[in-house]
Amino acid sequence: QEFEQSRIIKFTPPDACRLELMRFRTHYNEQDLPFTLKAAVVVQGAYIELQAFINMSSTAQILTRVPSVKYCENVMIRFPVPTQWIKAFWTMNLQRQKSLKAKMNRRACLGALHEVESDPIIQVSVGTAKYESAYRAVVWKIDRLPDKNSSLDHPHSLSYKLELGSDQEIPSDWYPFATVQFVVHDTCASGTEVKSLGIESDLQPQKHVVQKAFYNCQVEIEKKWIRLDGEDPDKAGNCLMQ
């Protein structure tokens, strides 16, 4: 009733807590995103290879209040891993079991000719990547895009290769999507922003206002199945373990 009369939203936030006051739907203005992601997984017999690359968009128009600030932070991309493959992403040592982490390789590029290796390998050209059981996915984390140490139009890539064991099937109904999350500061993606803020105990509340947009989208991962002689993936589920 108070909002209907005064058009003012009043609330009392809990102490030392992060809180979401309002969420609403908004139409996307059909502008390009700051960067594009393309990913493909190739299945050839017992070998699995995923390749993904990021390209910064030269036509992206980010609605920033400060024109010089046009970069993404806290970029996190998750590539889902079927339950049957999880064992391949763990390595054993004398102390404990640990998750396979990325091997940093800034010269990694898509389409490079290489031989399939028996050991699983994750390579990234920027950031870090590892399998995280909380998401059941290979998580690629990048602090900032564009990267400080590379040019604006330089593509970045991730790749991993697996050799599945006899007890690790490839789900025939697996249609994976990569989840992309990132933050852009001084941005108003929805077109709605706070015009004024009042706090009873603070004479200058505006200094506490931080404008940033959280992006969350999904990208389909192209699935390619290279059939070997005599292989029928539709009948793979009929095999029994002995």
TrEMBL record:
InterPro entries, A to Z: Adaptor_comp_med_subunit, AP2_Mu_C_sf, MHD
Entry-linked Pfam families: Adap_comp_sub
Residues annotated as domain MHD: 1-222
Superkingdom as given in the UniProt entry: Eukaryota
Protein name per the record: STON1 protein
